[in-house]
Amino acid sequence: MLKGKKIIIGITASIAAYKIPFVVRLLIKAGAEVQIIMTPATKDFVTPLTLSALTDKPVLTEFFDEKDGSWTSHIDLGIWADLLLMAPVSANTLAKMATGVADNLLLTTYLSARCPIFFAPAMDLDMYKHPTTTANIDKLKSLGYKLIKPVEGELASGLRGCGRLEEPENIVAEIEKYFDQNACFSGKKVLITAGPTYEAIDPVRYIGNHSSGKMGFEIARQFAREGAKVELVTGPTSLSIEEENINLSRVTSAEEMYEECNTKFPESDIAVMAAAVSDFTPLQQYNKKVKKSEGLTSIGLKSTKDILASMGEVKKDDQILVGFALETDDEQENARNKLNNKNLDVIVLNSLSDKGAGFGYDTNKVTILTKNGDEIVFGLKPKTEVALDIISVIKKISNQ
Ligand code: CTP
After folding, report:
1. Whose Cα sits closest to atom 21 in ligand 1?
2. Per the omega criterion (within 30 degrees of 0), is the bond before 88 cis?
3. Is the CB–ligand 1 distance for residue 195 below 6 Å?
4. Domain ranges in the chain?
């Protein structure tokens, strides 16, 4: 369950840093994305070149890059990561972590990280046994950080005792175990729709909309990361996705999307309908391209089937149904009406009034309404984060 996980490894100045390239290789092999941050003195113990070659990312050490004048945001890094592994942690960094000293990029990232933090100390046996070290470790454990204990063996000093960094295989196994245990949707089947639908007028023309499919694809990705088996049904989009737990079905029209969903919904535990399904389709579909000379000046339309509403009609008590609403006026009231009328558990209200939100953008601004009466307003965020917000609300409901 490491596939797609974003992991920061914070390396500090310790001989045991030589083991980190092995940790990186194992994580990358398992499908994780790794970003290395090291303290300045760590460069004497393991080279940034080796680590950037293995991670395919530059190793970060400083706040400022003097060459191009760019600034590295520790806040963004802390938000990006699914897990921060501090390894090896020297006695010095351990003390700083326990007291909140923030005098380098790694420590500021640690302080602003929102993700779980693992720390693996490595030092000489007497340093490890020192009461201040013990107190610092206890403090970090009390903050909820996960200790990867050092092991017994020969130390860099030549002495034998406890203080060796745990072996790379075991460090990676601990991380993997954590993600497996916290995969909230493990064993759950989730149906997601995404993108627009195209309603054919003739073989070359159609009625469609500007939906890019990004929101639905992000939701699919995040559910898969949390262990769900995802059926992603998408209308025409340039996006593609290749993840073990995601089965992608491409459809064109609202009718085709309805057929796919109708088959898949009974087996699903959760359904999230993020597609911008066309509400209308031409009454008549021409088999051949309509020529200009034919003088077609109007197209008769009929309503498509409301996929979401039809699911709401057959929804069982243990299924969770999530819809989207795009409103321009009386937003909250209209969204709540949709939630009630379509028998939904959650509705995600898209705001079109904010710049950067909605169709085609990488960001979105939503309010999430639940059938329990909750109404949570979120700020403008990247769609990856909006997907996480939506999933966290669904998580809460599925645990109720
Ligand atoms: N939806 C659907 N099938 C349709 C139309 C919409 O499943 N034929 C779903 C969308 O995927 C979305 C929700 O219904 O989750 C709301 O879509 P929206 O266009 O906001 O609302 P409508 O119900 O179509 O109502 P209106 O356009 O009148 O606001």
Report:
1. 325
2. yes
3. no
4. 6-181, 189-398
- Residue 339 near ligand 1, beta carbon < 6 Å: no
- How far is ligand 1, taken at its centre, from the CA of residue 105, in Å? 46
> At residue 285, does pLDDT exceed 80?
yes
Question: Does an H or E element contain 51, and which?
Answer: helix 48-55
The CATH code belonging to domain 189-398 is: 3.40.50.10300
* Residues 107/78, Cβ–Cβ less than 8 Å: no
Please tell me the predicted confidence (pLDDT) of residue 226: 86
Q: Please provide the CATH number assigned to the domain covering 6-181.
A: 3.40.50.1950
Question: Bridge partners of 71?
Answer: 64
* One fold for 6-181 and 189-398: yes
* The predicted structure's pLDDT at residue 305: 97
Question: What atom of ligand 1 comes closest to residue 308's alpha carbon?
Answer: 7
304 lines ligand 1 (CB under 6 A): yes
Q: What is the pLDDT of residues 162-207, one digit of tens each?
A: 999 999 999 999 999 998 887 889 889 999 999 999 999 999 999 9
Could you read off the pLDDT of 219-238 as tens digits, one per residue? 999 899 888 999 999 999 99
Token pair of 29 as six digits: 């092999």
Q: Cα 324–330–334 angle (5° rounding)? A: 40
